Structures are given as structure tokens and as C-alpha cells.
Protein 1
Amino acid sequence: MSRLLIAALAAAMLLSFAPSTQAQEPTPTVPPPLLGDVDCSGRVHLSDSEFILWLDAGLSDSLPCGDAGDVNNDGMIDTVDAALIQQIYALGTPFPTPPEPLPPPASGEVAIGSSSDVAASQRTVSLRARSITTPGLGAWTIDVEYDPVIVAVVRCSPNSESVCNANFANRVLRLSGAWPGLEGDTELASLTFRCRGVGGVSDLTLNPRIFADATIGGPQPINPTLTNGSIACADTLSRRLTVLVIHDLNGNGRRDPGEPGLAGWTVDLPDICGKLGTGEEAQSGVTDGQGQVVFPTRTYRCVVVESRFGWVFTTDRPQRTNIGPREEEALVLVRKIGQQLHVVTGRVIVDGLPATDGTRIDALVGGNSCGDVDFRPYTAVSSYMLHVLGEADRPGCASEGESVVITVGNVPVGEVTFASGQSSRLDLIAGPVPMWFEGVGRLGPQPVVYVGSLVCGEARLFQSFGFHTYTVYVFPDALRPGCGAPGRIVTLRIEDEVLLQAVWQAGFVPFDELQDVELPIVGAFAPTSGSRFSLTDGGGARIYATALALLGLLLLSGGAVVLRRRRTG
């Protein structure tokens, strides 16, 4: 508050030095009422200035009353308007009258510090205004450019007259501020950077978008002397990862001579791989003209490349290669399918089990082959992505609204109606349909499916990031006589331990929809429909048996007490 009063007094003193003829001249046209009232409060206050600073720094998208923001009527809303609002508030006038003639503008310097202490992981430098002359600094918008490969912004601590956006743009930090006159030397902000571990020097380049003095009613541009800074960082990385996105023209899953890189593809390195954290912050980049983007990294990172309509990946995961002691390359191959597509996805089951490599999946339109398939037989449940081509991409193929027959091994198993740009979910089942359930998370021996004494199914293991998940398939009578039929009991065992008992059901059955049953089993536990057995806890049956034993002992001891009381009674 004291600073505000001092500023108001200083402004009044400046007005007192204006030529005396000014009072006799006609009053300039008064701006519309409530000019500067950007928060719609019905008055002009310091908070209106803060709203504009936040807008200028990119920390907000709009003003509550945006029409009142262009105070000086120059077609822009910026920190000069914020400075004028502060003058309106301090002087208590609808619009400050500029002196005539205008006094000379202020002069001065903008400087940012440097750090060459490569051993420190974080460095703090000051952004300062220096040697500012009368009437002082009134408005500023200063961009600080840095190299995001070498350093990251940890914190931006502005002074009370500024706001800061550390993420204003890629490689740009912005400081926006206004005050009725800062003279001499003033720290505008304290900036903390963190070295990313890449050896090198990041320049800290100043770009004053607005740097104006505190002339009453008409802040004038200051042409400051600039002193840029820099931060030197040591190379502490264990590796550097270069990701290449390549157009696999022939779709063979490898890079051949002449296959170009693709520019403009977004590549992400998330902070987790599956459920395993890498301990590093997420990173993102866009491929250059050669199709590559370089990331600094200390640990193994997952590589995620954007998906685009009409493109498919020709390998399941990036092809990673060590190209130097601390250099790794991840090759991502994609190919162009077409523009007029209908995408069909789902699982593929052949004779009760996931389809194997070599299974042929196609889409037929009037006998013409119109399918381009990405088939993945190596998962616990074989999956596919079928791009049904339209007539614009392959003559004689589908037109809008036309029926398309989906085949597995030349056998029709499903049908979709073609709609360009749309997708459908369709499980492809060739042969008898098994009952199945998935999500049996278990380390150790493989579960076995029994109906009576017959082995009536298979369990397929899928491992990902250290997790083991079994998908269990239970065969119907058509695949294995004496197995699946209504009313029969399916038992899932690991050695002598019963994990689950359920009534056989026809068709695909998710694990959480099984019909559990209660059966008297000696020395084992069969879960009921009201309580799911934890399949990751191998000691569940033993715990249950122990509980039954303790309960029996308790009942026996209670009976003995009652018997003694009757004998002594």
C-alpha cells in the first residue's frame, strides 16, 4: 500500500510540472465509461491490471469484460494497458492526461544472469532491470528463450509487480508486469533451471516484447541495452535416445534403402512403461524433416508414436538399437493404407484357441479382396486390425453402405456395413466357440481346466512388464467330447489347489460373469458368487482350511465347557 501511495504522489508531482497552458486547452475526448474495468466490478481497480497481466502472460484465455481492456485504443490489450489502469487507480481520474510536450523517454538495461557451475543440478539466475531513469519503468513483457534439450524450467518467482508463465511456449518463458515507475535497479524475477543431463550450454536470450516507461497517460517505449545469460550443464546421461519415424513403403517391417523419414509426427516418452515408473518426467517431441527427434534420458523409456487414420505400424514395437556407448536409436515403421477406410478390430479364435501365425484374414466385396490386415498372433488373445478398403483406394472394393464379408482362412465368419472413416468391433470365430475367461494373474505353474477327470481346456500365458496373465479357454463337446455341455462343472486347478469352480456356459464368458457354484470339496476352497477368490494369492485355500480348523476347535472347546457345567450342576 505504501508503494502505491508513493507512486500516486510521484505521478501527481509529474503532472504539476506540465505546462500551465495545458489547463486552458480543451479536455481530450474521454474514453467510454468504465474503461479499464476488465473484471466487470463496476470500478477500475488494481485487480483489473492483474487480469491483463495474466492474459498477456498466457495464463488466461480471456477477460470477463474484454471490451474494456484496450485502454489506450491501440488495438491490443497488453501490459501498457495494465500500466494505464494503475495510473487511473492511483490518480483517481477517468484517463490520465499526458504532459505536452512529452518528456524524454526513460532509458536503461535488461539483464539476465549466467551460471557456469556444471556440478550443480539446479541454477537460479536473476532477471533485472538496471539503471532505469526517470520517469521509471512502467510496463514490460519479456520473453526468455532457452534450450529445452539442455535445461528445464523448475520455478519462476516474479516480483510483486509481475506474473510469470514458465511454459508460455516451446523453449520460451514469459514475464509480464506493470507499475507506475520503477527507477534504478530492480529484480523483476528469479528463475530456476534444472540441467537435463545433456552436456552443453543453454543460452538465455532476452526478447523484450514490451518495455515502456511510466509517462503519465502515454507510456513511451524504452530501447534497453540487453545482457543475455547462459547456463552450462555437465553431461550426466547414461544414454540419448533418437526416435526415427520411417515410411515403410513396402510394408515389410524393416527400413529399406530409399524409405524416407516422416516429418511432423508426435513422439512421447511417458513417465511410466506399463505400470513401471522410469523416474523421469514425461517428454514429447515432433519429428524433423528427416523423421527424427532426439531425447535425453537416463533409463529405459517407452516410445509412443501418434496414431493417424490411414496409417498402420508395420512392427509391434519400436526397433531399438545401440548405436554408440550412450546412444540408442528407436526405429518406428509405418505405412500408408489409404483414405477411404473402414477399420474392423477384434479377437481371432480358430477351433477354440487364439489364431496362430499364418492365419489369413480378409474382407470380400463381390469376390474381390479388399482387406489390409494387421494381425497379431503373439498375444494371449490373438487380435487383428482389418482395414477394409473403399473403391477410391482399390477399384472394385466397397462403396458407402455396402456389405463386406469378413473371412478367416477363406471361410466367412462375419459381416460389416462399409462406412468410410468408421470403425467396428467384431470377434472372428472359425469353428466351435469355446467358453473362456481371462485375467488369471498368477506366477508359477500353469492352471489346468477339468470337467470331471477330463482335461477340457488350455491356458495361454501373456507376460508384460513382469506381470503374468493367463487366458483360459474351455472346450465344448464339439472340440473335445465329454467336456463343455450345459450343467457340467468346470474346475480350474493349479496342481492340488482349486482356484475356481463354475457352471459351463456356451460362448465367450468374461471372468467376472462366470456362474460360480458351491460344492463340498475336502481340503480345498471353491469360491462362491458372493466372494471372489484372489487368484494372485496362492495360500487362499490353506487360509480357508486353517479357519475351518480353528472354528472346529472353538466349537469342541465350547461343547466341553457346557458338558462340565451340566455334570457339576
Protein 2
Amino acid sequence: MVSALLVLACAGEPTPVDSAPTVPHMSAERLLTRASLDLRRHRPAPEELAAVAADPDAVDDYIADYLQDPGFGAAVRDWFAVPYRTLLDDWPRRAADYGLGDEPGFARAIGEEPLRILSTIATEDLPYTTLVTADWTMANEVLASAWPIDYSDGASGWQQARYTDGRPPAGVLSTNGLWWRYETSRTNKNRSRAAALSRILLCDDFLDRTITFDREVDLSDEQVAAEALVNNPGCVSCHASLDPLASYLGGFYFPKKSGVAEMTVYHPEREDIWRWLTGAPPAYFGEPGETLTDLGHQIAADPRFIECAVEQTWTFMLQREPALSDIPALSAAREDFLAGGLTLRALAASVVQADDYRAEHDLKLMSPDLLASQVEALTGFTFVSEGYDLMRTDTLGLRALAGGADGNFVTERAASPTATTVLVQERLAQAAANHVVAQDRAGADRRLLTLVDPDSFPPEDLARAQLVELHQRILSATPDAESEDELYALLLDVAETTGQPHLAWVSVITVMMRDPSFVMY
């Protein structure tokens, strides 16, 4: 896909794109809902839906506002989480190794470091090339307590910070979070790390390449294998570019099972260890260099780097891989990305204009992160146990069961519901509904039950008005007469059976959050 886009990019003038819709577009209300969930992680308010129902042309103004919402940074982290695969539960070193007690917080912070750089670039409208050229990273107080990071005393939360161990400035390429995720071994010699860089930043996966390999080569003989990497055409086709790329990473050479001190700091004394590992001088697809800073600038200048960001954004926003028929739209998004100063807001703004993004019949399954975010926005509920966010972890959590990727064994998200995603949705809906009704019973500032007293059954007209408002807030649509009648019948039935009106509201909210349209949008 990227190579096809690159051909277009080098052909001179951008390919013209027909501005007329090629597929029927969804309604303005549905488009508003999709954009709100994708760009700011929660549903539009009923007032916003009513406004675009009255004036469909207003939807683009709302989308422009959503792009400026603080939630945009979290959206960026979610869409890049799949290619980066850094949100693991288990790491080579644990919080206790640094005298820290918050194991869930430590594990989450390590994985978020590269993604927080991306979201900062997005929210501060920095050029995307900053990702591999910045002289800063992102850290919170947990990482600052473990790693050599300049972080303000007494501060808390994620902030721009700098490593203090002399590592070359190269943005995400210089982070512990990336190289703890992608380890190496004494025999691998940083090659798997180089392959990860190519896959993540260039959308060029060495493992996808077709090679012709001589099966008579005895790979169990280390000397024979080393000679094959230089002389065997099947090996050379990859290793001629892979090994020089790996040679940039000597300062992070700490093989698996290394100690805490080894893995915590950068090792400038090992920058030339390539002489004893790959034997190939550092180079970027034929262009020589010396340090990680050189590598960062080489990647930033590579057209594939920009093409890859377009492809990854498209894949997240449309929840499918680009096809050849998408090349004109992708080319247009690339041109908008460049014209917008390579800001991720400009790229996202272009993708949401695409006909396929607005297609009437295309539905997307929410990621577990997005599902958790919209539930929290509606109800204030977070599914947490023993410090672990159950929708964003797997060791004690439900992320993979909810259709998510764990970054290790499950590397792609589910595109359609499964039996386990439905079960997770059910349990989350039940817990969140109980939570929000309990909160609305206890406080004057009610979150969902704004028209009724949860502890007394209201007159029918008031109950129905509350049902309609709930439906608008939870499902972003006004119920038809039949659905409203069914919800009211459920409300009556549970209230009469239990004698406790608040349980009737719990049941109604649970049913709405179990609706397929709550997770398919």
C-alpha cells in the first residue's frame, strides 16, 4: 500500500479526487456520533445531535471543534497503540526492582511513553517528524522515580522531560519504553528491533517479504549462518538493509534477562558494538550514519514515514486496511497532511472527510479503550480491580476478551463482535448502570437521571421523557414509538417486581448499554 502511494507521490501533481460522494453518506447525526467517539472519546450531547438534525450542514463545524477537544490526545494514543504494541502487562523489570509499589501504574507508564510522545505531538500541533527528532520524551512521576529523567520535584502527571544519561536526542527512538518492549538477544544482535522500527514507522515489515531461501544452509552452525547473511542471496535480500539499521542501536544493547542497571540507562560506550555484532556499519537503506540522531533525521526525510502515518490513521479511522481503490483518497489525505504542516490534526481532519469514513452502511466495533472511555464519560464508572484497569489490561483484565490487542500474543483488534466481546459488554453495562444510579441517588448533581427521582416511580409522561433523554445520551438517537413503549414496559415490570424504582432504572440503563449500537458505530 505504501509503495503504491509513493508512486503517486513521485508522479508530480497529486491525483485528482472526485469531490462528489461515491457511496451514500450516513445521516448527519450518525456522522456526528462517529466523529465524536473517534476524535474525543465520548458521544455528542443531545443538544449537539438536535442541532445537526435541524441543520445537517453544521456537522463539519462540530467536527472541527471536536478536533480541538482535549480528548483528541487519547484518541491518537488509541489509534497508534496497535502498530506500536507497547501496552503490555508484563515487562522485563518490575516496579519492585526500583523500590516502587504501584505495579499496574509502572507497567502502564512504560507502555504509554512512546504513545504519549505521539499524543503530545498531536495536541500541540507539532510536525509529525518531531516523533523521531525531538530532544524530549514524556514521563510521569512513576517513570521519573525509576529512570534517569529530568522531572520537576513534586510534580505529577505526564509532562515533557529529558533523559539525563547522555543518550542521543531522537524522539521515540531514544526511549526506554520502546526498547524495553522490543528486546534483543546475543544472537539476534538488535535485528528484531530494526525490523520493528521498519514495521512501525515505515509500514515495511521485513517478515512480509517474499524470499527464496536455500534450505541446505545449516543454520545450527553459527559460522555458516554468519557467512550466509553476507553471501546467500536469500539472506542478503533482507540483511543488506536490516543489519546496518540494527547497527544504530548499540547504545541500547542489553540482551534479555539483563539486570536493572543494564536496562535503565543508555550505553554510549556500546555504540560501536556493531563491529562485533552485525559487522555492518550503521546505514539507513544505503545512506550511512553514526548515531540515533542521524537515524531519526534519516527516517524523518523518508517519504515512507509520512505515507505510513497516513496508512495507520486510515486503518484506525475506518477500521480496515487500505485497498487499492483507496489510493486516491489516501493520496488526498497525504497532500492535506503535508499542507497542514504534518500535524496529526490536519491528517485526521482529512480522513473524516473521506466518503468511506462517512459511508452509510459501514459500522465499526469499538476498541476496549474507546468503550471504557465512553462508559466513563456517561456514568463516571471505571472497571478497576486491584489497581488494574480491566478494560486496558489482560493479566487480570478483559482487554483481549473485549476484542482488543494485548501487544504480544494478540496483535490485531477484532473487527466484529464475538461471544466474549458481548459478555464483556454485558458485565460492563451492569456494573456501570449500578454505579451511575447509586451516584444519582446519593448526589444532587445527577449524571443520567436528571428528570426523575431514582427512588420514587414518576408519572408516565415524566418517565417517558427520561427514557427518551437516556436513549439520546446513551445511544445518540431518539427512540421510535415501539422502542419507547418496550423500555417503559421494562421499567414498569422491574419496578413492580422488585418494589424498588432505582433497580428499574438500573435495568433500563443496562439494556441500553447492551444494545449493539452502543459498541457498533
Protein 3
Amino acid sequence: MSTTRKRPRPAGATGRSQTRSSAPTTPATPLALDGRSAGVLVHVSSLPGPHGNGDLGTGARQLIEFLAAAGQRWWQMLPVNPAGAGNSPYSGVSAFAGNPLLISLEDLVEERLLDPADIRFHLSSRRADYTRAAPLRVEALRAAFKRRRRLPGLARELERFRSEAAYWLRDYSLYMALRATQLGRPWPQWPRELAQREPRALGRARRELAEEIEYFEFQQLLFHRQWARLRQHARERGVGLIGDAPIFIAHESADVWSNPRLFQLDARGEPTHVAGVPPDYFCKTGQRWGNPLYRWGHSRSTRHRWWVERFRTLLWHFDVVRLDHFIGFSRFWRIPAEHPTAEHGTWEPAPGKHLFQMVRARLGRTPFIAEDLGEVTPAVRALRDAFELPGMRVLQFAFGEDTQASAFLPHAYVPNCVAYTGTHDNETFVGWFGASGGRSGPRSAKQANKERRAAIAYLAGPGARQLASEPHWEAVRAIYASVANTAIIPLQDLLGLDNAARMNSPGSDEGNWEWRLGGALANALARKLRKLTATYGRLPPPADSR
């Protein structure tokens, strides 16, 4: 849905070159997952725009306007850290930094850090084209860095940002500068003194790479500033942001390089054991993610400081954070690094209770969603409930043969949960229901038909004709009608798209994370969604009562 509203200028701004503050602005009354509400799941990279992938600019602001018009309280997205292997946001090179490919180049033109000629490239909006977009976007960010003195006061702002982000920014920017000099080689293959972080070698590198280090700091400042404005835009319209925290970190990351004692590594810095999950619905041989596992004893000895600082950063960005693979805070699947699949791992305990006690003691309010999907044991449920965290319910899981399937039927939900038609790892609902179009899931045709019949029996009722033509809306209706406090619908399901619009297929290395919205969302869709939201008591309270 388009909008003619202008982005508000910060108080005291007198011209477009005015430097905007990067200081965190925390809402006086943060939005919380209490009472009935609804939202939409879509990643920033999926938004429309001319530069190869969605970003924090016009498309993001227009989405917020759509959500407000549609009576939605929440925008849920995937991790916004720099993407790693396969462009996955769940395998980033930092748990703290923002993805520079999400920086709006058009907004940098508005601020005079770029000239219009710098962003004349136009890439297809059908799919995210990271291969072509990344070098062009980086070239533009390099140009903005050269022109940074156009903005009075930006140098002081960078100094303030360095202080605010001191826990992670210093190591991140050095890691990225070194990575460039090492031509992207894995950090255990760097010269020994750099791989092992010998102080004298790091000091010399900081001097020799000072300008390159400042460039990566500058990137993060731009992301930080644009994020602050976007969150303010959302807050003024009553829309809260839900983020996503992958439990594990990529081996090729600033975090593992700068905190090697926190991870299960050998003397060379290579993982001894890696993360994944045993055989399940998505993959018969399990999923071998390959991330290094935590050395939880060391984390505990530091009172989990790395985690506390990570959550502190996330809760500046978001009102609520989804804890991906929450099971891993109770127990984790430990796979020997030399094994090519996840079939031969073992379950090991994790100190989730102590971790969350430390986080709550340091940060107070902990607005987390527990992604409690998979092999959920009584211990996992006890950990979730001890901290009163809402779990997840996914409608697509309700009609299969899994022993937990009945818990995903809407009539079995509890108020303290977040209900979805599907997640970024699922087929779209139309694709799942019809078992056609684009990439399919792991089900056999026989199983797909069996689940479809079960869904028809459950969802149809007097709406059988509607279910045949628009199964996604009957799925949304079932989720909205449930007692779940929060209902989140993937944007693809609101649009009734088939599996060609699927975001991710676990176990597949191609075609993931590329789906994009082709254009603005229609006003008619906002009106239809708002009506349904009102029908089931999920509209946000009036602005004057918040």
C-alpha cells in the first residue's frame, strides 16, 4: 500500500544535511505480547525496491503504513545480521552487526552522502539478486564513506556510536578489515599471529588498516541510524518489531574469532563438534548446520556476558525477539565435526535456566518468543514456562502423523503462544494445501493428500467453497479465532501465493532467501485484513489509550 506521508524530520532539523542522532530511543511503554493482537511475517530483503533486495528505506516504511492500516500490531522479520553462506540470515558473520546490504541507498541520497548518479543501477524485483546487488551496493557505500564529511557532526556521531557499541564493534570492524586482506580465507588459515589474536599483531593491524576499519564502522553507523528512524516510524504508528535470534553462530564470524574460548574449537580454531538436529520432518538424515557449539562451562563462568550483550543489542532493535531453536537452550544435538550428516550425534544438556536468570538480572524485562518446535521434551517446556515465554503453534503441523500434531490444532492453543499458518521454513499454505507450484516439501504425495483431507475436515465447515478457492484465508481465520494472544501470518499466505514464493527449504542449498514482494500492497488487502482482525478482537487499542 502506498502512502503520501512524508517521513518526519527530527526536531531541530533545518535542512537535508542535518545529522540525525544515533542515540537509542526506547519507547516509554514498549509494546508487549499481552492481549490479543496480530501481525505479519516478512523479511526486509523481501520488500520491493530497485537495488536488488529490500532495505530499510521506502519499502519498509510503506509496509509499516500497510500494517497500521490493516490493524496489525506486529512486523516480524528474520535476522538482520550480515548474511553468511548461501545468503542465509541464520549464518551471519556477526551476531551484533547489521547487514549493510539492508542500508537504503535512496535515503543516503536524501542525506547528500550519495549523489543520484551513484545509484542509477536498477535490478529485477522478482527475486533478491544478491550476486549482482552486493558489489553495486558496496560500491555505493564506499562512495558514501568518501563523502562522509558532507554531514557536519557525523564524525562526533561515529565517536559516540563507537562508545555505545564498544562491546562488539571494535572486534567486528577489525575482523572484516582483516578478512578483506586475507581474500576471504577462513580465519584459522590466516597467519598464526592473527588467527590466534596475538596482541602485538592486532595492534599493528589496527594501525595499518585504520581507514578500512573506519569504513566498516561507518557502515554500521549508517545501519544504526536508519534502523533508529525506521523503528521510530513504526512506533508512531503503533507497530512493534519482532526480531529473530539464531541460537548458533557461523564459524566464519567475528564472534567466534574474537571469543574462541566460548566455542568448542581445537588448537587451530577449527570446530571439534558442530550443531544440527537429528532426523525429523524436514530431513531424513537430520540437519547438519555446521555451526560450532558453545562451551557452556566457559559461558557460565563469565555469567553469560556475551549472551547478555547480544540480547541487549537485540532489544534495542526490537520490541520482541524470537529465540530460534529454543530447544538448544535446554539440550543440543552434538555432531562430531568429521561426520557429513547429523544422524550420529548425541543430545547434551545446556544451562538455559542459569542463562535466562542472568539475562533477566541484567536486562530486566525479557520479551522473548520461544521457538519450541521439534523434539520438545518436558524439560524444554519447563524452561519455557519458568520464564513465562510464549511458545509457537504452526497450523501446517496440525494435520500430520507426528505425536505432537494435535497440539497445533487451533482449538488446542493456549493464550500465551504465538500462532502461525507457517514459518519461513515451511511451504506456503497454498503450496502445502494444494501440494503444487514451485519447490515442494518433504512429504510424499500420499501423505500430502492425507493431510489435505484432514485440513478440509477441520477448516471447511460452512466455508467449504471458500476453502476450495482461498484456503489461505480459512487458515488465517482459524488462527485468528483461536485463543492465542498473538497471530502472525507470513505475507505469502496473505497473498495466497504458491511454493514459488517459499522463503526457505531446509536441507536445500539453492533458491533460498530470495522471494520478494513485486510491488506495493493493495488497499483492498489492508481493508480485508483489518475487518478480519476486528472480527476476532485483535485490533490494537486506540492510540490515546496506549
